[in-house]
Specification:
Layout: E1 3-10, H1 14-23, E2 30-33, H2 48-53, E3 63-65, E4 68-70, E5 101-103, E6 106-108, H3 115-128, E7 131-132, H4 157-168, E8 178-179, H5 187-194, H6 213-221, E9 227-230, E10 235-240, E11 247-253, E12 259-269, H7 273-282, H8 292-296
Parallel strand pairs: 1-2, 1-12, 2-9
Antiparallel strand pairs: 3-4, 5-6, 7-8, 10-11, 11-12
Bound molecules: flavin-adenine dinucleotide.
The site of flavin-adenine dinucleotide has 33 residues, from helix 1 and helix 7.
Length: 299
């Protein structure tokens, strides 16, 4: 018999980690399955050679561009997913993004929900992720039910000069909404924290000030005893029941080659844009010989 949970969340990145935090207080038995482990916290986190030449934090995988093999720089299989490395500029989508509109490759269909449906969740997520921004400064900002939870981070001197010059020309420069785990918005304190970082976007942060989903999603979720995290647990495939409408089993193939089976009343696939698509492609469907991906019409 597979180990049974109320909810299984596959992936602990921006989506899965945040989802775990939101669901933890429900008391449901929740299992997070994460392909990778924890990013090591070390001085080398900020070393460009380590990150970009040695690629210490990037899996040794081969991808192909028009049949040409290459080793990608940006898949990060860790607790926290790509948010361990991201730039933490946390914009909301715009109202238009939810509507049907024309893209380079064709029509992007309308979402089944609108910006206003998500607005309260953005407001909550901005609190959880310590978003620092300046109210009213971005002329493209969509409507908000509450101000940003924290004031903007100070510009570095060179950027401040640039911003002032642009404003003098009648443009509207604004500080990016940044997720920084600082409980204040006082300029001097913020500055001294910012001085800690020789690098930022693209690098892990050993000080854990960057607002990522490991620190602000997974870790708070694990405060609840109904929540379990299993690392180094890549989901190989989902198995459907005979009706083809329910996930019957979640199959994990560990790096030791062991196969472990889980089941749940609800399975959340949050393995990233590519990871989720690949998982669907590997998963069979009883009524569609080419698999779950095609039967869901999502891939
Ligand atoms: C360098 C860089 C800078 C960025 N800067 C920004 C920014 O400033 N602002 C912004 O909004 N976004 C930024 N992004 C993008 C942002 O990080 C992603 O949009 C976001 O992390 C996506 O969240 P996700 O949960 O969908 O996927 P991810 O965060 O990628 O998480 C997916 C998780 O699923 C796990 N996984 C994958 N396959 C499996 C499997 N089979 N079984 C179990 N687990 C699996 C992965 O290990 C990972 O933990 C940046 C990304 C990068 C790489």
């Amino acid at each position: 018999m597979p180990d049974h949970y109320d909810i299984i969340i596959i992936g602990t990145g921006a989506a899965g980690g945040t989802m775990a935090r939101a669901l933890a207080p429900t008391g449901k038995r929740i299992l997070m399955l994460e392909k990778g482990g924890f990013v090591p916290r070390e001085k080398d986190n900020f070393d460009p050679d380590v990150n970009w030449v040695e690629k210490r934090y990037t899996p040794d995988v081969t991808w192909y561009h028009k049949s040409k093999p290459f080793r990608p720089s940006h898949p990060h299989y860790y607790v926290g997913g790509n948010t361990k490395f991201y730039g933490a500029a946390l914009f909301r989508l715009r109202e238009k993004d939810f509507e049907e509109y024309e893209q380079y490759d064709g029509i992007s269909p309308a979402w089944p929900i609108s910006y206003s449906d998500l607005e309260p969740y953005y407001a909550l997520a901005e609190k959880w992720y310590y978003v620092h921004a300046q109210d009213g400064a971005d002329p493209t900002d969509p409507p908000r039910s509450s101000p940003y939870p924290y004031g903007p981070l100070p510009h570095e001197p060179r950027i401040q000069r640039l911003s002032d010059d642009l404003a003098r020309r009648g443009l509207h420069p604004f500080p990016l909404p940044m997720g920084m785990r600082m409980s204040h918005d006082r300029e001097e304190e913020a500055k001294s924290s910012l001085d800690l970082w020789p690098q930022f976007d693209g690098y892990p942060d050993p000080y854990e000030i960057k607002a990522d989903s490991h620190i602000l999603g997974v870790r708070p979720a694990l405060q609840y005893e109904n929540v379990t995290l299993k690392i180094n647990s890549p989901v190989e495939r989902l198995e459907m029941d005979a009706s083809g409408r329910r996930v019957d089993k979640v199959i994990v193939k560990t790096s030791a080659g062991e196969t472990v089976k889980y089941s749940a009343n609800l399975v959340v696939v949050a393995a990233g844009a590519l990871g989720s698509a690949l998982l669907f492609l590997r998963s069979q469907h009883p009524k569609h010989p080419i698999g779950l991906a095609y039967s869901t019409e999502l891939v």
